[in-house]
Design brief:
22 helices; Growth Hormone, Chain: A; elongated; mainly alpha; 0% strand
């Protein structure tokens, strides 16, 4: 989300609670044993009753033969009544168990949709970058690039602070209140974003993104608290892993669906589709609150009749705890900034970068415009000239129209002047029906839309890998260890991935598979490392610092990307990728330092669960929602 990010920080919670599988199995076995014991005791009581009844019957036959039949019927009826009552009690117990388990899985299903809207909306601009640039053609390339990257920076700005308070809010006001507040902020923010798109106001969209940021990361904390409440010591690792996978699929769906909707309808329609995704999440909130309210009423009733209603005391985040952090924690913080800084910002510009590099490349000078070069004498290019490369992967030639061409309907293009200065591609608004169906721009818009849809597939790969692998990778890492070494390896793979994007023409699927793998591995080993390096009462602060650090990077680096793009002829390749290679290299150097520290301190991070020396600093999971990391990983 988190950002962000695959879900990663969630991996922290998945690994943190992985050992609860054993406890859950033992709990289920104890419960079954108790039921069997009750049945055995009941059988013993019945047998003893039969023996006693036989002795009584023998005495009655000797002393009261006239009443033996009546006494036998009375005793038989009593035993049958006791047996029926015991059977009913057992059935009631089993029904309660089944009802409880069915409720838990219903809550899990609903919780998987809590963040679907947030993940979808977070990556909404990235999937529509090319279309948004056309939609806001009144801005220069430099001005648009800056505002586009601000869409992501402004989301992250509030989350440089909120991670220290989101969990405390959930602890203080309750899960239901938190779910309503944070989901409403996300829905309201996306409504403002979509309204800005409809009113051609990028500034309004920026305000909406900031509002989404106020609720996005904190909703992750509330969702984690919900899962912990329902699944503590019961399938917690599976539940959190499933949450991450389904939520991250929101990003994948957005990357594939949004460009298609923009082509068929408009960019505004694609943004409003994000609102509908938020409404789905809000519907799940309503259902969860209804279930929670019923359960709370049952708890209060149980407490009033002497039932158990234990609560826990939440553990708060304290900034003063950072003075106790070891060097290794600060190495993790720096690694978080630079590693996420070369992953999430790339996804936000991936659509335009891939079109520039692979799917809508700038053609040779003689093939740029109809009526000139290889297309001399042709006002309308109906086919690619023999001397020009194919489209795709190159862009379709631009129409020979003047830069001051203004149209209201499609046929107005035929009345536009054709002299210099010519119209540039950014000024051709294919989101407008007049341009999209214009006689001189129709083919150009069709080819550009097809290129944007093609770019959506490789840019979805990192999130798809995260969604499918994350639920299981954390459990493997917890067993084999190698956390510091895997962080180093992830940085090395990211260097390779960005180098391939910057300097080669290899298919984009290869570097994006590499990035997705590195991204997933890094997140899976980063967040679970905190409980190994800090005292138990500092875990919440550790996660808060790590989440804030990640969002600091995600607020700053998009601005760097916009500045580099503007200073290098409005191109991403290779200079923006050089920035990402540099960040990954810093992550690699940081990984070397982390491994050196770990080796000198007993391999705290690289040791797996099979090794349990006395010096181990692992901690048991805590119930405090303040300790739950954000899911934007």
């Amino acid at each position: 989300s988190g950002k962000r990010g695959s879900g990663g920080r969630e991996r922290g919670r998945v690994v943190k609670y992985a050992n609860t599988y054993k406890e859950e199995l033992e709990a289920l076995l104890r419960e079954l044993a108790e039921v069997l014991l009750q049945l055995a005791l009941e059988r013993r009581r019945v047998v003893e009753a039969v023996v006693v009844a036989d002795h009584e019957r023998a005495r009655e036959q000797q002393h009261e033969p006239a009443h033996s039949l009546r006494a036998l019927l009375h005793r038989s009826w009593s035993r049958l009544s006791r047996f029926v009552l015991s059977t009913c009690d057992l059935c009631q117990l089993l029904r309660a168990m089944v009802h409880h388990h069915s409720q838990r899985w219903l809550v899990l299903t609903l919780s998987c949709f809590l963040l679907l809207g947030n993940y979808y909306c977070y990556d909404n601009p990235a999937a529509l970058k090319s279309q948004l640039q056309q939609h806001f053609g009144a801005y220069t390339r430099d001005a648009f690039e800056l505002r586009f990257n601000l869409l992501y920076s402004l989301y992250s700005v509030p989350n440089t602070v909120l991670p220290f308070f989101g969990g405390a809010f959930v602890d203080r006001f309750g899960i239901n209140t938190a779910l309503v507040l944070f989901s409403t902020l996300i829905l309201l923010g996306q409504v403002v974003v979509a309204t800005g798109g409809s009113l051609d106001s990028l500034e309004l969209m920026l305000i909406g993104r900031f509002v989404i940021g106020l609720g996005g990361e904190s909703l992750s904390v509330a969702q984690g608290a919900l899962v912990v409440e329902w699944f503590l010591n019961e399938e917690i690792a599976f539940a959190m892993g499933l949450n991450l996978s389904i939520s991250r699929l929101g990003s994948v769906i957005n990357n594939e669906l949004s460009p298609l909707v923009a082509e068929v309808a408009s960019v505004s329609a694609a943004l409003w589709l994000g609102v509908s995704m938020c409404l789905i999440s809000m519907l799940s909130v309503v259902c969860i609150i209804w279930i929670n309210t019923r359960v709370e009423q049952q708890k209060h009733l149980a407490a009033a009749t002497g039932g158990d209603n234990d609560d826990f005391i939440p553990e708060s985040i304290k900034l003063s705890d950072v003075k106790d952090f070891r060097v290794s924690v600060w190495l993790l913080v720096f690694g978080t900034i630079v590693m996420y800084g070369c992953v999430i910002p790339l996804n936000s510009i991936a659509s335009s970068l891939l079109m520039e590099r692979d799917y809508f490349k700038h053609p040779p000078a003689q093939c740029v415009r109809c009526g000139e070069g290889a297309y001399a004498g042709l006002l309308d290019c109906k086919a690619i000239a023999p001397a020009c490369p194919s489209a795709p992967p190159y862009a379709w030639p631009l129409p020979k129209l003047s830069a001051n061409c203004s149209i209201d309907v499609s046929d107005d293009q035929l009345q536009c002047p054709t002299g210099r200065p010519y119209i540039e591609d950014a000024k051709i608004n294919c989101d407008d029906e007049a341009w999209r169906n214009g006689p001189l721009t129709r083919v150009y818009c069709e080819k550009k839309a097809a290129a944007a849809e093609a770019a959506a597939t490789p840019m979805s790969i990192p999130y798809l890998i995260s969604a499918t692998v994350s639920p299981f990778l954390g459990l493997v890492v917890d067993r084999v260890g190698l956390r510091a070494l895997l962080q180093l390896a992830a940085a090395g793979v990211l260097i390779l991935a960005h180098t391939l994007l910057a300097t080669t023409l290899i298919t984009p699927f290869v570097p994006f598979v590499l990035q997705g793998t590195a991204y997933t591995v890094f997140a899976a080993v980063l967040w679970p490392s905190i409980p190994l390096l800090v005292e138990e009462h500092h875990i919440g602060t550790g996660y808060g610092v790590l989440t804030a650090a990640m969002n600091i990077g995600l607020a700053i680096f998009p601005i760097f990307v916009a500045a580099i793009y503007s200073d290098h002829a409005n191109r991403y390749i290779p200079d923006v990728e050089v920035l990402f290679v540099g960040l990954a290299t810093l992550g690699f150097i940081n990984g070397v330092a982390l491994n050196a520290w770990d080796w000198k301190n007993g391999s705290v991070l690289n040791r797996g669960s099979r090794s349990t020396p006395a010096s181990s600093t692992t901690h048991k999971p805590t119930e405090s929602t303040s300790l739950l990391p954000s899911k934007r990983v």
